[in-house]
Design a protein that fits this description.
single chain, 0% strand, 71% helix
Length: 55
Amino acid sequence: MVESLVIEVPVELVEGLDDIVMLMGFRSREEFALVALRQLLDKHMALMKCIRSDD
């Protein structure tokens, strides 16, 4: 199942985002957002595992 999510981004961030998307070779903002979100979640999940293991 695929869900959708709409994220509103201020214009000044969109301009910078477009530059990053182009420079890093992503095909779209959406592709960049998915990669960034996956990496962020991976880091947070690893952090949560460390915190929970200290309990």
